[in-house]
Design a protein that fits this description.
Elements: H1 4-15, E1 21-22, H2 29-38, E2 41-42, H3 46-52, E3 55-58, H4 65-79, E4 84-87, H5 93-106, E5 110-116, E6 127-131, H6 136-139, E7 147-150, H7 157-185, H8 189-199, H9 201-210, H10 215-234, H11 240-253, H12 271-279
Parallel strand pairs: 1-2, 3-4, 4-5, 6-7
Antiparallel strand pairs: 5-6
Helix pairs in contact: 1-2, 3-4, 4-5, 7-10, 7-11, 7-12, 8-9, 10-11
């Protein structure tokens, strides 16, 4: 799906001489515009796409990862074409093993990938950590607008790294949001912000820069937090951290700000204005 990350990856691959296509049937007007801007071609069906390409990069919200793999596996069965399938989604190692089984049962090669960093062109080079039996199809893309880093042959290693990393980054953003919302509901937000300015200026700066922008991505990040919770459970760790993070993103997804895109986001919105809006969608509290 050529959304924010997918269209940017497609764009840099095109710049390095690759033909890039997607199947845009049923996609939003914004997604189609992003694909067009990136020079990504469109195919009439998923079966047509599968029959034309050498490799598929699955880049989409984690809740759709397994369904997409099943749809591609069906298209492989229909066409007899077996392009390499790379799952680049923020899913648990358990989920990526299931995705991989779906693809390899269909007869195609499978690579596990975890993307870390901003979309290409928006910051330092985007890193694709990869694991699987034959990584050459992906390592051949190294320095083609992305950095590809091998983690060995075991499926699940790349997704495990992504889950641990996102557990910190997005987990921290939601913790920051929850702490400030609690202070606001308890009537001590101004005092807390003053104290943070004095003793935790780095954390406060991060809050001011990130929290007002979270709703635009909150809907698709709910599933990612649930995948991280499943990853923690598999590692014998408590799941509550990221189950709570998923709940925070659900609250933010109810805000009108959630309808914004990266193109329409209000960069001038203050932290206080954002928190005031988010608090409207909290469950009823016992505060008097």
């Amino acid at each position: 799906m050529p959304g924010d990350m997918g269209h940017a990856v497609g764009s840099v691959l095109r710049e390095h001489g690759y033909d890039v296509v997607s199947c845009l049937g049923g996609r939003s007007e914004r997604t189609c515009k992003l694909a067009m801007a990136a020079g990504i071609g469109d195919t009439e069906s998923l079966a047509t796409l599968v029959s034309q390409v050498d490799m598929i990069l699955s880049i989409l919200p984690p809740a759709s990862a397994l369904g997409q793999a099943k749809a591609v596996a069906a298209a492989m069965a229909e066409t007899g074409s077996m392009p390499v399938y790379v799952d680049c989604n923020a899913v648990s190692p358990q989920t990526v093993v299931e995705v991989g089984h779906t693809i390899t049962t269909a007869g195609a090669a499978f690579i596990d990938a975890g993307i870390i960093g901003l979309a290409p062109g928006k910051g330092p080079t985007t890193r694709f950590y990869v694991s699987g039996r034959d990584l050459e199809p992906m390592t051949s893309l190294n320095d083609k607008g992305i950095e590809v880093i091998s983690l060995g042959s075991e499926i699940g290693r790349a997704s495990s790294l992504k889950m641990a990393y996102a557990g910190l980054t997005k987990g921290t953003w939601t913790l920051h949001t929850a702490v400030l919302l609690a202070a606001q509901q308890l009537g001590v937000l101004r005092e807390l912000l003053d104290e943070l300015s004095f003793s935790q200026s780095g954390a406060l700066s991060a809050m001011q820069n990130r929290i007002p922008q979270l709703p635009a991505d909150s809907g698709r990040w709910v599933g990612e937090m649930e995948e991280i919770a499943a990853t923690f459970a598999g590692a014998g760790l408590p799941t509550g951290f990221h189950e709570g993070a998923a709940e925070i993103f659900k609250v933010l997804s109810k805000s009108p700000f959630a309808s914004e895109t990266r193109e329409t986001m209000d960069a001038s919105r203050s932290l206080e204005a954002a928190l005031f809006d988010y608090a409207r969608y909290l469950p009823k509290s016992n505060l008097r």
